[in-house]
Amino acid sequence: MNNVTSTPYSFVVSVNNPVPASDPRPLHLPPDAETASTIRLTTARRREDTPQARVFTPRTVQRWSRQAPVPFWIDNGRDGSPSCSVRPAAPDAYDVHAPDGTPLARITRRTGRLLPWPRRVQWSAQCISPPRTVTGRSGTWYAWLIYGVTAPVWFLAALGVAVYSFFAGEPDDDTIARPTRTRWRTPGAGTVLDYRGVNKIYRFDPQRLDARVAYALAVLHTWERER
Does 166 map to a domain? Predict the structure, then answer.
């Protein structure tokens, strides 16, 4: 995938209502492919701007979920050339391949838990060339500490909103946001991908991580939160 620059840049993953792929349809896509998401640079976030990349999935009755994963393809947004494919390999595991079938990485998700000891959700990518592991955990430890300490206040606030919504007959759209900032790091290279949950922006260093792997991580990470 051709990067706009070799220096760090920021992008967002937009989750679209599925749109049929435009004709002529690229040969590497299935006949029922549709555009599920777009990846846009933060310097060009207007809908009419050409995206950095487009994400395609096969049309299915059920939307993507961890219980019903689907393969997807990432194409260059400017010329439509294929960049990579991502296919489910096992529960919470996905293989990333180059257009010629060369394996690039395996992405895995480890579920978070509270007992017997707290553990954050973890997204990792085991890259093939060069061999390295990129790991990111949802939420910083200090954000989770603050979240835990203030939990009683959040609970009472949520209860009040729920009671108000019940008697007012209005839907409750307010949710208590858990810490979501995720920094993907690799030994010897530091942070290679950084997600900031407040503005939903990914900060990426193309010299430290293959853009195709970074985009696949960002898409899966976004889909889990927004679908």
Answer: no
